[in-house]
Amino acid sequence: MRMIDIIEKKKKGEVLSREEISFFVTGYTKGEIPDYQASAFTMAVLFQGLNKEETAILTDCMMHSGDVIDLSAIEGVKVDKHSTGGVGDKTSLVLGPLVASCGAKVAKMSGRGLGHTGGTLDKLESIRGMSVSLSREAFIEQVSRDGIAIIGQTGDLVPADKKLYALRDVTATVDSIPLIASSIMSKKLASGSDTILLDVKFGSGAFMKTLEDAVTLASAMVEIGKSLGRDTRAVITDMDQPLGFAVGNIVEVKEAVETLRGRGPKDLEELCVSLGAIMLDQAGIEHDPDKAKALLRQKIANGEAYAKLKAMVRAQGGDTSQLDDPSRFTDVAGAQAVYAPKTGYIHAIEALTVGEVAMHLGAGRATKEDTIDMAAGVVLHKKIGDFVKEGDVLATVYTNKEEISPIIDMFTRAFVIRDGAAKQNPLIYTVIE
Q1: Domains of the chain, CATH where assigned
Q2: Which residue in the list 161, 199, 238, 281 is annotated as catalytic?
Q3: What's the predicted TM-score (pTM) here?
Q4: Average confidence (pLDDT) per 10 residues, the chain, 433 residues
Q5: Is the torsion defined by CA of 288, 293, 296, 297 positive or negative?
Q6: Active site annotation includes 168
Q7: What does the alpha-carbon distance between residue 300 and residue 305 come to, in Å, rounded to a whole number?
C-alpha cells in the first residue's frame, strides 16, 4: 500500500477503506509518512470530504493511536461534556459539580486554552494550590469517592491528533468538518466516559459562525459517537455575546462560584441546568426533563452543588477559602471602567472582540509559550437588550498592564448601541440526538 495512491483516490472523491485510513493514521503517527503527503491528504479531504463511515473509521484509528483510558473501575455511568469553545464559557466549572451533586459520575479530562482566555485547567489553577495533574489511580479513586474530578490529559492520548492538528493549523485545512469532528471525538472517546454531551456553539465568538455549520458539525460528531457505541448528544447554543458577565480566569471562577450559590447570571444558570438535565438522562438518574431541571435547581438552592465544587477543589489541593471569600484571590494593579459612548439599546456585543480584549489584557495566550495573568479579564455590566445612557458603565476591565487606551477603544467598539428595542437570540437552538 502506498500513500500516494490513497491521496489520489481521495482526490477523485472515492471512498477509502478501513485499511487505507488505518495505514495513513499509523504511518503518519510513527513518522513513516512525511508532512507533505499528510498535507496533500488533508487538503483532499477538505475538498472531497469523508462520508459517515470514513469519518467514524478515522476517529476510531486516531482514538487507538495511543492510550485509551479504562474507567470501568468506577461504578455507574461516567458522563462527560465538551464545548467547542466560546467567550466567557466557564460551563464546566458549574456543570460538573452540579451534575455530580445529583449522583452522576463526572470523570473529566480537559485542556488548556490558546486564545482569548485560559481553558478549564488554567481557570482551575487560578485557585491557590489546585492541582490538575493526578495519577490515573488517584483520578479513579476521587471520582469513585466524590463523584467528580477534572484533570489534564494523562498518558499518551491520541498522538495522531496532536500531529494532525498542528499540521492542519499551518496548511489551511482547519475548517474541514470531518477533520474537526474526528479530532474532537477521538479525544473524548479515548478519555473513557460512557456518555458524551457536546455543547456546539455558533456566532461571532465561536469557531462555527453559522447555525447551519454548527448543526453539520454536531450531527457529524453525534454520528461518530453512536457508531462507536457511545451515547452521544449535542446541543446547539448561542455565542453572539459572551456567556455570563465574566471573561478571564479568576473572574470566571468567581462567577462560577456565584452561579453554584444561586447568585449567578441567568443565561449561565439556564445553560447549565439545560445541559445538566440531558446528562442526568444519559446517566439514568432522571429521564423526565422537567423533573431533572427541578432537581438541579434544588441542588443549587440547598448548597449541595457548591459543596461538591469545594469537595473537588479540596481533594485536588486547592484553597477552598478563596471560594468562600473571593477577596482572597490575587488582585490586579488597576481596574478601569468602560463607558457607553451614546444613549440607546445594546443590539450586539461582538463576543470575539471581547475575547481579544481579554487576551490583550493578559487573560489568554497568543502562543503556547505565553504566560497567563490569572487576575486579568473583563466583567460586563450590560448585555444585549439593555438600555444605556451615554456615560453609563458598560464593563470593567482588570489588568496589570499600564497603557491600555487602545484596548479600551477596541472594547468600546464591541458594543453596538442603537435606538429601538433589541432582539435577543435564543440561548439554546436545538438538541441533536
Answers
A1: 3-63 (1.20.970.10), 78-156+163-324 (3.40.1030.10), 330-418 (3.90.1170.30)
A2: 161
A3: 0.93
A4: 97 98 97 97 97 97 95 96 92 97 94 72 94 93 97 85 90 92 94 96 91 96 95 97 96 97 97 98 98 98 98 97 94 90 97 94 81 94 97 96 92 96 93 94
A5: negative
A6: yes
A7: 5
